[in-house]
Amino acid sequence: MSNPFERRRMLLATAVSLACAATLPALAQAPAPAAVERDGAGQTLQDLYQAALKEGGTLTVYAGGDEVTQGFGIKAGFEKQFPGMKVDIVVDLSKYHDARIEEELLRKDLKVDVAHLQTLHDFDDWAARGLLLPYKPIGWEQIPAAYKDPQGRFTGLVMLTFANSYNKNLVPADKAPRDYADFLKPEFKNRIVIAYPHDDDAVLYVFDKIVQKHGIGFIEKLQANGVQWVRGTQTPRDAVEAGKYAVSTGTSGNFVPVESSSVRFVLPTNDPFLTWAQTGAIFKDARHPAAAKLYVSWTLSLPASSNPRQFPIRKDVAPPAGFKPLDQYNTSPEDFHAFMRDRARVERLKSLFERLIGPVQGISPLKD
């Protein structure tokens, strides 16, 4: 569901620029070469690449997201770095991917090699059913224990944060909504766009936190201030970017703004917000296990992970300039994982917010 692809596209561009470092002065001592990264079996990216080519050079990835374009950048970057490889990245809402995978398993016709999704509970279930291939990719030691399976059956691939967005041309920086109560201010009346919480578990988590802190009456006040509810978590961000609305919450964005963009992404000052490890796994019966290992290791390799647009997934990578480590903020990836595991509570909350807001309306964000 949510969208790691724009971030990865930026990471790939950064990795290419790092490879073009300026020549050192003649008398300067050359730095020691960086250690070659290896996976748990001692394989380098080059080793994995050669094995993937021998296997056939193809790969199918099911990626959680809500816009069809979200896989374009990662596909282009992967195929450019590994000539001869062809990767089919199928983007869909995570809740639809898990149903798609279940159908393929029942039909004994598994098409997916790698899945990376927001539906974290699926990985627990697939691991318990013996459906995942244990693999400790490149960068494994640098992934916090809370974001990976000890046996290597799944691992976090990228950290994602949902918080608040505003259009810098419509809202001054000092008036930007930080905490959720800010969305009740009169200046934002009829200028708010948010994804339906009962259509996306990540947004549902955000609204659960809102109700826990501000009470259920907050939803009525928010509704009274004029909210356009939409499907998909990129939809609100795109609408704010285009100036159709001024502010949103439950969206992703760059911690350090892209100057050419009109969107600014801000973290709450006091209120809790959502961060999680978008998790990936290789299926035991994958048709292209060598290519799958290459893809996962490439994603976690230091060049691809060294310039995060949000919190880093690797312990040896610093957060973006001006930001503190994740544990110094009011956010907990472990809490979101626990939330996702409690499916009975999730379903109760979906029913509650449908009652408060109304049924989800509109076509899939992948088809708009």
Describe the overall structure.
Strands 1, 2, 3, 4, 7, 8 and 9 form a seven-stranded mixed β-sheet that branches. The protein has a two-stranded parallel ribbon with strand order 5-6. Helix 3 (72-81) links the parallel strand 1 and strand 2. Helix 1 packs parallel to helix 3 and helix 2 (45-55) runs antiparallel to helix 9. The longest helix is centred in the last third of the chain and has 15 residues, at 343-357. It is built from twelve helices and nine strands. With 368 residues, it is of the alpha/beta class. The protein is 35% helix and 15% strand.
Which terms summarize this structure?
368 residues, 9 strands, alpha/beta, disordered N terminus, single chain, seven-stranded mixed beta sheet, two-stranded parallel ribbon
What is the topology?
Blueprint: H1 5-18, H2 45-55, E1 58-64, H3 72-81, E2 86-92, H4 94-107, E3 114-117, H5 120-128, E4 155-167, E5 192-195, H6 201-214, H7 217-224, E6 227-230, H8 234-241, E7 247-251, E8 263-266, E9 274-282, H9 289-300, H10 302-305, H11 333-341, H12 343-357
Parallel strand pairs: 1-2, 1-3, 5-6
Antiparallel strand pairs: 3-9, 4-7, 4-8, 4-9
**Helix and strand string, N-terminal first?**
HHEHEHEHEEHHEHEEEHHHH
The number of helical elements comes to: 12
Distance between the termini: 16 Å
Q: What does the overall shape look like? A: globular
Determine the structural class based on helices, strands and strand pairing.
alpha/beta
Helix proportion: 25-40%
| Biggest beta sheet summary | 7 strands, mixed
On the 0 to 100 scale, the average pLDDT is 90
Taking pLDDT < 50 over at least 5 consecutive residues as the criterion, the unreliable ranges are: 1-33
**Radius of gyration over alpha carbons?**
21 Å
What is the β-strand count?
A: 9
Strand content: 15-25%
